[in-house]
Amino acid sequence: MDRPETLETQTQWRTAGDRIQTLLDSCAASGPAAYERARQLVAEVVGLYGAGLERIVEIGEGGLAERLATDDLVASLLLVHGLHPHDVHRRVSDALERVRPYLGSHGGDVDLLEVRGDTVRLAFEGSCKSCPSSAVTLELAVEDAIRAAAPEIGSIEVVTTERTGMIPAESLMAHLHSDGHGPTEWHPAPELGELRAGEVAGFVIGGTALLACRAGDQTFVYRDHCPVCDDTLAGATLLGTLLRCPRCGVDFDVARAGAAATAAPLVPVPLLSRDGVPSLALREALGADA
Q1: What is the tens place of the pLDDT at every residue in 68-91?
Q2: Are residues 57 and 95 in the same domain?
Q3: Would you say the pTM of this structure is higher than 0.85?
Q4: Residue 92 lies in a domain
Q5: What top-level branch of life does the organism fall under (predicted)?
Q6: CA distance 11 to 227
Q7: What's the mean pLDDT when you consider all of the chain?
């Protein structure tokens, strides 16, 4: 059982860029000359590994580049060095496929209409096109997946069905960030990868109490709060996709955004695999004086 160790290693490599930048910034304290030497050293190392990766791709046989591109970490290196075998349209399309299970849990979907230059045009379907959390869905799931798969994309536009025109991603995020919450942060949660089918478990991640459950081959995460009895969901049981509160007995459908027949739904938390690591998107509440 080496999966937890593998996920931890992937999380470590995901933050490698931040650590390199921190080291470069520390070199700046020794003066411009020291900083420039450190920057040149990093550039030489990156160039060396890029040349080695290019040679591997050139001498590989049997679609080696295609197989390498299936690994998130290696795919990111291929992108950096311009060696990725797929064009931007294919990468954006594949990115949307990866987030469809999350959108489906909210009763929605997304269509890729067009990739023109550095702009992607999308259209939401189902409940996503009218749900108040569409902005959250765009920023936390769709946009993150597209940016990771195609960093050359400069803007994302959402085509509406109620009126002509497009809604820029920036306008949706402006509304999102004006709702009394601080910026969104992704929190790696490799422990979610250990859940078994039918299992329910509580976690505290980023200071937030959460409840995770695995229905079939999908994992869902919600805030640990029952809107009916205003209490914790600790001790809840899962039957199929129905999560039953142990106190009030109300059933919530975890595969349909936590919906209940006669009650308010649970509050879902976006869960995506980032570089192979299950990660949660959480926003911090701003203080009263913020």
Answers
A1: 887 777 887 888 788 888 899 999
A2: no
A3: no
A4: yes
A5: Bacteria
A6: 34
A7: 77
